[in-house]
Amino acid sequence: MDNLIILILVGLTTICGLVSVFLVTNTNNKIRILSKNLTLQHNILLKMQQMLKNKFSVNETTDKAEIIYQDLLQDLIPIMASVDIMPRNTSEHPLWRALGGIMDEYAKNPFVLEKLRRAIKLDVNIAHNVSHYLNRANQFLQHMANTDTDGILSTTFTDGLLGQSLTFFAQAQTLANS
């Protein structure tokens, strides 16, 4: 009888030990899965934080760019009137329509450069508008180059209408001053 009780106790102890090992292993697996999920969640939160920072930066740049666009447009309006150029008839932003109209007209008629040179030479207000436009556009391009991490956006502006118009207006101003 004593042997039977000892055998039963050893069996119960063995079963309890095996159940304990199973529960510890199962809990360990669940903790490992939980740890992986927490790591993934942490990485996702970091990505979301970076994305929100980038979005905030882009929104801030866009708001500042709109102010600069309006400032540049205010300089272009009297210049366009002095050389009889109309903006493009598209749904673009008014600045791009104005710049497109100037560059389209210059592509059709290179004499526009001479008209602008004369306007700069004869009208102080036009000379001031051209100078202010050149300064503000150069500042904007410099700001874009400094803040654009991959360079795609700043290259787009430099190679696009803004860069082309800078070259055109700088050429006209240089001719007027010589």
Detailed description of the structure:
- This protein is mostly helical.
- The chain is built from 6 helices and no strands.
- It has helices at 2-82, 94-108, 111-122, 124-147, 152-159, 161-177.
- Helix 1 (2-82) packs antiparallel against helix 4, helix 3 (111-122) crosses helix 6 and helix 4 crosses helix 6.
- It is rod-shaped and about 125 Å long.
- It starts with a helix and ends with a helix.
- Number of H- or I-type helical stretches: 6
* Order of H and E elements: HHHHHH
Describe the largest sheet: none
Tell me the β content: under 5%
Beginning-to-end CA distance, first to last residue: 122 Å
The percent of residues in helical segments reads over 70%
Would you identify the regions where 5 or more consecutive residues have pLDDT less than 50? Answer: none
**Number of strand elements:** 0
Summing up helix and strand content along with how strands pair, one would put the structural category as mainly alpha
Inertia-based shape: rod-shaped
What Rg, in angstroms, do the CA atoms define? 35 Å
Mean pLDDT: 87
Structure, briefly:
With about 180 residues, the chain is mostly helical.
What is the topology?
Layout: H1 2-82, H2 94-108, H3 111-122, H4 124-147, H5 152-159, H6 161-177
Keywords, separated by commas or semicolons:
mainly alpha; 6 helices; rod-shaped
